[in-house]
Amino acid sequence: MRVRRKTNIYYIKGRQKPKGHHTPNTHYRIETVQGKVSSNPSPFVLPAASHFYCFSLNLSVPKNMATLTHPTSQTHLFTKLSLKPKKFTSPSRIRMALQENAPSLAVVGVTGAVGQEFLSVLSDRDFPYRSIKMLASKRSAGKQLTFQDRNYTIEELSEDRFDGVDIALFSAGGSISKHFGPVAVEKGSVVVDNSSAFRMEEGIPLVIPEVNPEAMEGIKVGTGKGALIANPNCSTIICLMAATPLHKHAKVIRMVVSTYQAASGAGAAAMEELELQTREVLEGKPPTCNIFKQQYAFNLFSHNAPILSNGLDIFVCGDQIRKGAALNAIQIAEMLL
């Protein structure tokens, strides 16, 4: 499917995929009434198919978000148009993320494991943006990257890269965040940082949208006033999502937490070394330990917090719980729209 916009009419072109489900190269038109979606939606079945599709449109905001995503029991009125068919390769869903009135984005550490996950989540959620900068180290600068069927050149991270950026997603390590995060804020960007650099700093919100969204009150995109928001460790997010509703009904006095972190949390290099160590151990060779100082293939050890005298290692998670936490960087960014 692909879509193009003309005033308040959206044209959708469907192609046969999978076979037998729709008529190939057929156009449909979705009309709106007085700036709103028709208030009398009727079910519509594509020819020779039993699948309904849901088209959602929001004209109350300038972004005019629109998605055609999943089978549903009913949808808005479609009108068939007789247009000359053209050959094209269609994606599996409509993408309306690239919009003139949406915020500009920057992904810092885009070549890393979490940076790639940022792009995946942005795409899955059709996050609206008018432009996006792919930022990484000097080693990756100049390489090509494809995102939502568009090619981008990775740029070397520098202080001037944040000019005109509304939202900056950071996942390049604590030292990078410490240096470039405040720079981006000074240039008017709202920074969502995935590292541990700012999680415990006074005055910097650590937010779960479903738990403490009020911590982001006053932070707006496009005002020219930058801000910094910290994104917590994944174990803290999971813990708080479960504990918060319980705490609201019956106060939680004490929690005993055991958390086991994956090597992927240390990035792509750690994942590669884990694979290398696994092969070396199975072959009877001494494991390569460059990322961590000890073997972590087929192993479990304390990494970023001291082992307490009672054997419990809950220091990091516990301190973050006391301040608050964030569900994930993209959901935080969505709250800024």
UniProtKB/TrEMBL annotation:
A Pfam family matched in the record: Semialdhyde_dh
Ranges where the Semialdehyde dehydrogenase NAD-binding domain occurs: 104-219
GO terms for MF: NAD binding; oxidoreductase activity, acting on the aldehyde or oxo group of donors, NAD or NADP as acceptor; protein dimerization activity
GO process annotations (BP): alpha-amino acid biosynthetic process
Record-linked InterPro entries: NAD(P)-bd_dom_sf, Semialdehyde_DH_NAD-bd, Semialdhyde_DH_dimer_dom
CDD domains in the record: VcASADH2_like_N
Alphabetized PANTHER family for the sequence: ASPARTATE-SEMIALDEHYDE DEHYDROGENASE, DEHYDROGENASE, PUTATIVE-RELATED
Entries under NCBIfam families matching the protein: PRK14874.1
Family according to the record: Belongs to the aspartate-semialdehyde dehydrogenase family.
Protein name as catalogued: Semialdehyde dehydrogenase NAD-binding domain-containing protein
Organism: Populus deltoides (Eastern poplar)
